[in-house]
Structure formats: structure tokens, C-alpha cells
Design brief:
The protein has helices at 21-27, 34-44, 60-66, 85-94, 119-131, 140-148, 170-177, 197-212, 223-229, 242-252, 258-268, 275-282, 293-301, 313-321, 329-335, 339-344, 350-369; strands at residues 3-6, 49-51, 67-73, 98-101, 135-137, 154-156, 184-189, 214-219, 269-270, 287-290, 306-310, 326-328. Helix 14 (313-321) links the parallel strand 11 (306-310) and strand 12 (326-328). The protein is of the alpha/beta class and 382 residues long.
């Protein structure tokens, strides 16, 4: 029997320490958070599976020879100013059944109803309509957008990363930690130069807390920032403009010296190209907070309580769908003067979370089994 083709990764970039930053960021789609849901999907499948572009080449004949179905771990594909031509063209030509897992729409907020999508997004919708028996979507907002585009076979599943940790005791582990003092924490940076000034206030607050506390900050994206973070790696050698360091310094740590900024970068900031190592390191901390969905989710799956600060429909939809502790970014700015304030804002019902998690698990299983894909036992509902 033929196996399952996957467009994604195992959640690890091999030999990244000897890789140019441009190539490293290309491997993760310019965001290391992509590794997290790809890791989750890869480990859902319990049969012969092949990463396209790694286990088998991007060759139509060889993919068809090995695979009967293609699984696409999906992100916020349904968004404006996003060109998916390359992937869509491949999927159109391969002419196999398709499963999209965790597909999301992105908007300013839930009120946005008009979108100017690239033509490739409309082609993607046609593929879903024609070759997917069921499609896994992030939440009700995405489901509504797809309905308007003629897709009526979507199941709300949240993100597959919600099921990385197979333990049924995860909610109780998190609830127990919330009863204990919070002494250490991990934060998650978004971008140093956001268009929205309010979003920058969140970023600076997180940096200041991290600089002062028993903590670290993980950075997932912004290629030019990643180049700066990896500038001492000989393999990642890039000609970085002198003004970039000054720009980063003023954006993230105004009021500090350049030496203080350099000390922060060296001692507090981390980048992960391996989900397993990211989980292991996150497990050391008592609390996780930030603007990044997947950075927080890594900590959550390690049993570390987290607070999601949302700033658009994307993060809000996922946090609501999965019953995760959350707070709007403007409320965070106004009411969380200290990291202890953020810790105190966690509102977590382990029973409600457990019930929702089980429901979302069953829906993911249904999407996969619609194409007779064998799902790993760690998704068994007990």
C-alpha cells in the first residue's frame, strides 16, 4: 500500500548550526513557529510517510509512486498579500487527494469581511473543494470565511500543536503549577518594527521583563533580525549593515546602553530550529507569555502555564477555539505592569480545556481517517 506524502518537516532543521541564515529561514518559511505544527502533524501519522523535498524529491512521478494522499500542515494561508503560487501549482499537477490540517484565515479582527486575495488563494480554495473530503480549520472565523468562498466541509479543530503532548493529565499538570509561586518565565518576541505602535509597547514590555527576571525570550521570525542574532556563527556569515544593530536597540530597548542591549541578546535571547529542544528548554520555566501562538504552545505542551496575548483574528481564533488563557494586547498594555500581573490574569479551567481538547482530537482524527490515514495511538480518546 502506498504511503502518505507530507509538505512540511519533522519539526527539526538538520545541521542548522552549519547553515547560512537565508537557507535556515527558507527551511522554516521565515518563521520557526511553523516547525511546531509541522512536528505535530508528522507525529500524528502512524504509517509509511514521506516528506516531499526530503524523503522524496519534488518529482511528480516519484511522489505518485510512493504516495496515495498529500497532507499539508497549514498555517494562515487565507490572507491578503500572500502568494501561494508555487505550492498550489505543485498540488494541482500532482492530482492526488489532499488533507489540509489547521488551515487559518487572517484578518485585522473578526469584523473584516472584505479581502483582496492573491489569485493563488482562490486556486487553493478550488483544490480544497475538489480534492479534500474534509478540511481542518483553526476556528469559527476561518470556517465562516471558507463558507463565503464555497467551502462547506470544514471542521473546526484548532491547531494540531495542541496535541503534541499525548498525556491526558496535561490539564491537571498545568492547573497544579498555577497553584505554586511563579519565579521564572519565558517570553516570546514578535517583531521589532511593527506598524502598530501599541504592538511595539507589548514587545518592549516583554523585553524589559525578560531583561530583569529569571527568564529568557524566544524569537521566531523576521529574517533580518535572525541574521543579527546569528552574526557570530561563521556558517551564517552575513554582511549586516552597521545601522541595523542601532535600529534594533532603539526599537526593543530604548533608554539602555548599546552594551546592555548586547548583553541581553547574548544571555537572554534564544532561537530554536528543533521542537524537541524547544520543549525541553521551555519545561524549565514556571510561566510563558507573549504574542506568539506557537512559542506559547511549546511551553504549554511542556506543562508550563501560559498566557496568549492576541492582536489579530489569527491568535484570538486559535486561543478561543482551544480554550487557552488569553488577553487582548490593549488590555495587556493597560493592566499588566509586571510579569506577576500577567501571571495573575491566567484564567484556566482544566475541565473545560480537557473536554474541548478531546473534541478537537476527535475531529482531527475524523479528517485524517476520511482518507484512511492511520492515526497514532496518542490521539486515542479515553
Amino acid at each position: 500500500m502506498k504511503g502518505v506524502g507530507i509538505i512540511g518537516s519533522t519539526g527539526n532543521v538538520p545541521r542548522v548550526g552549519f547553515m547560512d541564515t537565508n537557507e535556515a529561514m527558507r527551511r522554516v518559511g521565515n518563521n520557526t513557529g511553523n516547525l511546531v505544527f509541522q512536528y505535530a502533524v508528522y507525529n500524528l501519522i502512524d504509517e509509511a510517510k514521506y516528506l516531499i523535498g526530503q524523503d522524496i524529491p519534488w518529482d511528480m512521478a516519484k511522489v505518485r509512486e510512493k504516495c496515495r494522499v498529500i497532507v499539508v500542515p497549514s498555517a494562515n494561508f487565507i490572507r491578503e498579500d500572500f502568494d501561494l503560487t508555487s505550492m498550489v501549482s505543485f498540488l494541482e499537477k500532482i492530482d492526488l487527494p489532499l488533507i489540509f490540517i489547521g488551515l487559518g484565515a487572517q484578518a485585522r479582527d473578526y469584523e473584516q469581511s472584505e479581502f483582496d486575495f492573491h489569485p493563488s488563494i482562490h486556486r487553493l480554495i478550488d483544490l480544497i473543494r475538489e480534492r479534500s473530503k474534509l478540511v481542518s480549520v483553526r476556528g469559527q472565523f476561518t470556517k465562516r470565511i471558507l463558507h463565503k468562498m464555497g467551502i462547506d466541509h470544514a471542521l473546526v479543530t484548532g491547531c494540531p500543536s495542541n496535541h503534541i503532548n499525548p498525556s491526558l493529565e496535561l490539564p491537571q499538570v498545568i492547573a497544579q503549577k498555577l497553584k505554586e509561586p511563579m519565579r521564572s518565565f519565558i517570553t516570546h518576541g514578535d517583531e521589532p518594527w511593527p506598524k502598530d505602535h501599541s504592538k511595539q509597547q507589548v514587545e518592549r514590555k516583554l523585553v524589559a521583563w525578560t531583561n530583569q527576571g529569571a527568564s529568557m525570550m524566544s524569537q521566531q521570525s523576521v529574517p533580518v533580525f535572525m541574521e543579527y542574532l546569528r552574526k557570530n556563527n561563521p556558517a551564517a556569515a552575513t554582511d549586516i549593515p552597521l545601522k541595523r544593530e542601532a535600529s534594533l536597540h532603539s526599537a526593543l530597548m530604548p533608554g539602555t546602553t548599546i552594551d546592555q542591549f548586547r548583553d541581553f541578546i547574548a544571555s537572554k535571547l534564544r532561537v530554536y530550529f528543533s521542537v524537541d529542544q524547544w520543549i525541553e528548554d521551555s519545561s524549565k520555566y514556571d510561566f510563558s507569555v507573549g504574542l506568539r501562538l506557537h512559542g506559547n504552545m511549546v511551553a504549554w505542551q511542556a506543562g508550563t502555564p501560559a498566557l496568549w496575548v492576541y492582536h489579530d483574528s489569527r491568535t484570538q481564533e486559535l486561543a478561543e477555539t482551544m480554550e487557552l488563557p488569553r488577553i487582548p494586547f490593549k488590555t495587556f498594555i493597560e493592566e499588566c505592569a509586571t510579569v506577576q500581573d500577567a501571571w495573575n490574569r491566567i484564567d484556566f479551567d482544566p475541565v473545560a480545556y480537557c473536554e474541548r481538547r478531546a473534541l478537537l482530537k476527535s475531529r482531527i482524527r475524523g479528517v485524517m481517517e476520511a482518507e484512511e490515514i492511520k492515526v497514532a495511538n496518542n490521539l486515542t480518546i479515553k
